[in-house]
Design a protein that fits this description.
By secondary structure, the protein is of the alpha+beta class. It is built from eight helices and 38 strands. Helix 1 runs antiparallel to helix 3 and helix 3 packs antiparallel against helix 4. The longest helix is centred in the C-terminal third of the chain and has 26 residues.
Length: 745
């Protein structure tokens, strides 16, 4: 179908809506329509009437481009329904009559500006050549300036507010209805002209609104030609929409490209909403709301059904706004609401729609309360039937052989029924892990669908931890000792004349026994042997004072010699020792658990010890135990992006030795290494969740005063001891997700 036919039908449909709202009354008659092409592509379309022209209403649309002019209380005496023009920007003129009004629809090839002027019984519509970027400008026929001064309309307030989407909202309030406001743009300036409203002196003040961070920077209200003009300074790219209802005119200046906010009542906060309709331009002066809805239906392609209670007129100006936003503006301006069902939109007052929906819901609930109850057994495969029953409704469950099924008495009101109807109930059988549901067929089906989603296997997680303890030690000791002894018995206090050689041999035997004990004790502490070694009883010869100068503490590495004389022996012992040690202890606990389930794995010993309590002969020995464990405690949670959140606890204990208790017994001393943390890790990633680094360094010097400071010779009278120890504890964790077919993820 051609564009011309569509426009004609649309205009005819719009007029049919007026028939129901306005009685047939024609005080004037349109006799003729003609056009004349002017210079530069301009076109003048002349409408001739039987009587002088009264007030007219004009509005424009962008898609398709056209101009509509309404002549109230006017009949159509023009013979042709359509006048082809085909000159300049004008394509054709269609004339229709309905409900005592006549509408002239001018179809355009492109958007074009226009003006109207009246002269007696003639109304001339002058069309500019137009281009794709031009926008229609309405200059409606208006009374002369003298009558405009007597309108009695005043600007009572000029207000500015910022919208939630960064838009600037200019609000003009008048002391009464009937203000005729128009908007035009010139570069970065917007002009709002209200020809029939005067501006009081107290409102003629500049408003600097730069701090609101909107496209609007300044408002300049001023009086002009007996009316009011608001000059709005802007910056950046923006879009505009304006509407007028009652005694308020609202202009919204929105940043271009930002989410368009729904235009609400003046002064009300608008909720951000995106619109996707094609842009339209509406310019209405006191036009019936039903006519505006018909135009929106034509632009949107929807079927709009308006209730009989949709009445009243609206003055509205929207420039290049989506049609769905224009519809929301109209609905909010007249306290209307809409409900859409497919391609049909029902429009009615908000109270009427609310009452309809409330009645429909009451009827639905009444039917449900009378519906037949059905019984259903639902088998639970992976989840726990009791937990599912608790989820469905708290207080409406029964365990096998215990409790009493709630039939609406225990659960309280309907708000406590969960997924059940007021008459429904749910029970569970722990033995067979099943649910027993009694409710309406619709509710039972809903519960079955919910259980199908919840009753699925969950993924599992393998958590592997590594505990590494690295130790390194270094010690160096250098010293000397010497002594003088005689061969006579009186030289030594003990009277024993044994040789220094026997003394040195006994010292070497004691050192060997002591070294063997230390090695066996280390094996016991590391868990290599189960029997604790017995400390050796060291024997010291009577010649403990023979070497009467001693600086070295450890005699594991010594060199001694004796200078023999007839009655006097000189004994010298040089001692030097260097120890180096490196060790590494690795523990590697692993455990598998389901998603969001705690898992614990541990290994270790319970160390028994005896304590003695009491005094005198009433002492009591008590055996107690302490744990020395390697333990991993973890609760994993698999996230939607395939990562693992771990609530983690790792510890490793060791027996460091025993502490003797006064009065008898000993208590084990436990070395503890533990970390408790929560960490988010990628699947299969290894991270260090904890670490401790220890370093100890010590240097000691022992010497004989004065003698130890003699260069060279002083080395025989002093001892140097240097030690350093390093220990490092690292804990590594690696989670791996083990996905199960059909899981909830």
């Amino acid at each position: 179908m051609s564009t011309k036919k569509i426009a004609a039908r649309a205009a005819l449909a719009a007029c049919l809506l007026w028939t129901a709202a306005f009685p047939a009354l024609a005080a004037n008659t349109l006799k003729d329509v003609r056009y004349a092409a002017g210079s530069g592509g301009k076109v003048d379309i002349t409408f001739e009437f039987e009587q002088p022209v009264g007030a007219v209403n004009a509005f424009t649309t962008d898609v398709p481009p056209r101009i509509a002019i309404d002549f109230p209380e006017t009949g159509n005496g023009f013979d042709a329904r359509r006048l082809a023009v085909g000159s300049g920007a004008a394509s054709a003129v269609s004339i229709v009559e309905a409900g005592g009004r006549t509408r002239a629809v001018v179809d355009l090839f492109r958007n074009a500006g226009y003006t109207t002027r009246s002269n007696g019984n003639l109304l001339v519509l002058s069309l500019e050549p137009g281009n794709a970027a031009s926008s229609a400008t309405v200059v409606a026929a208006s009374p002369d300036p003298a009558k405009r001064l007597d309108s009695g309309i005043r600007v009572s307030a000029v207000d500015f507010r910022r919208g939630e989407d960064g838009s600037g909202r200019v609000i003009l309030r008048f002391n009464q209805e009937g203000a005729q406001a128009s908007l035009r743009r010139d570069g970065d300036r917007l002009y709002v002209d209200v020809e029939n409203a005067q501006l009081p002196v107290d409102q003629a003040r500049r408003l600097d609104v730069t701090d609101f961070a909107t496209p609007v920077t300044r408002l300049d209200p001023a009086s002009k030609d007996g009316g009011t003009q608001i000059v709005i300074a802007t910056e950046g790219l923006f879009e505009t929409s304006a509407y007028q209802t009652g005694n308020e005119y609202v202009l919204e200046v929105m940043p271009k490209g930002a989410a368009t906010a729904a235009v609400g009542q003046a002064g009300a906060a608008a909720e951000p909403q995106r619109y996707a309709g094609k842009p339209v331009t509406f310019n209405f002066q006191d036009v019936p709301v039903r006519t505006i809805l018909q135009l929106v239906a034509e632009e949107s392609g929807l079927n709009i059904v308006a209730a009989d209670t949709v009445q009243g007129n609206l003055t509205l100006r929207l420039i290049n706004v989506p049609w769905d936003q224009a519809l929301d503006v109209v609905l909010r301006a007249k306290s209307l609401d809409k409900r859409r069902d497919g391609n049909v939109v029902w429009v009615a007052p908000q109270a009427e729609i609310a009452a309809f929906e409330q009645a429909r819901e009451a009827a639905r609930m009444s039917l449900e309360s009378k519906a037949e109850l059905v019984n259903e057994i639902i088998v639970i495969n992976y989840a726990n039937a009791e937990e599912i029953a608790t989820l469905l409704t708290e207080g409406s469950k029964t365990a096998q052989g215990g409790g009493q099924s709630s039939q609406g008495g225990q659960g309280g009101g309907e708000a406590d029924r969960g997924f059940l109807s007021p008459r429904g109930s749910v029970s569970f059988d722990t033995r067979s892990n099943t649910l027993l549901v009694a409710d309406t067929a619709k509710k039972v089906q809903g519960i079955k669908d919910l259980v199908a989603v919840l009753d699925r296997p969950v993924d599992q997680v393998l958590i592997e931890a590594r505990i590494v303890i690295a130790q390194e030690s270094f010690a160096r000791e250098i010293g000397a000792r010497f002594g003088v002894s005689g061969t006579e018995g009186d030289v030594i206090a003990s009277g024993n004349t044994a040789s220094n050689r026997n003394y040195l041999n006994q010292v070497a035997e004691n050192n060997a026994a002591l070294a063997l004990y230390q090695a066996e004790l280390a094996d016991f502490n590391n868990g290599l042997t189960s029997e604790r070694p017995t400390r050796p009883e060291l024997t010291v010869p009577a010649f403990t004072q023979i070497l009467n100068t001693r600086f070295a503490n450890n005699t594991a590495s010594t060199m001694a010699f004796t200078i023999l004389g007839n009655s006097l022996d000189l004994d010298i012992e040089l001692q030097a020792i260097q120890e180096e040690g490196r060790g590494e202890v690795v523990a590697n606990p692993r455990v598998i658990t389901a998603n969001q389930r705690e898992a614990i794995i541990k290994q270790g010993d319970e160390i028994g010890y005896v304590t003695v309590q009491g005094a005198g002969g009433q002492q009591t020995a008590t055996v107690q135990f302490k744990e020395a464990l390697l333990e991993l405690k973890v609760t994993p949670t698999i996230t939607q992006d395939n990562r693992v959140f771990l609530a983690l606890g790792v510890k490793k204990d060791e027996v460091a030795g025993f502490i003797e208790v006064p009065g008898g017994g000993s208590v084990p001393q436990i070395t503890k290494r533990e970390v408790n943390t929560a960490v988010l890790i990628n699947n299969g990633q290894t991270v260090v969740v904890g670490g401790i680094y220890e370093f100890e360094r010590r240097e000691d010097l022992s010497k004989v005063p004065f003698l130890g400071d003699i260069p060279g010779l002083g080395n025989l009278f002093r001892n140097n001891d240097r030690r350093s120890e390093k220990a490092e504890l690292l804990i590594f964790v690696t989670p791996r997700i083990l996905q199960v077919a059909g899981s909830t993820r």
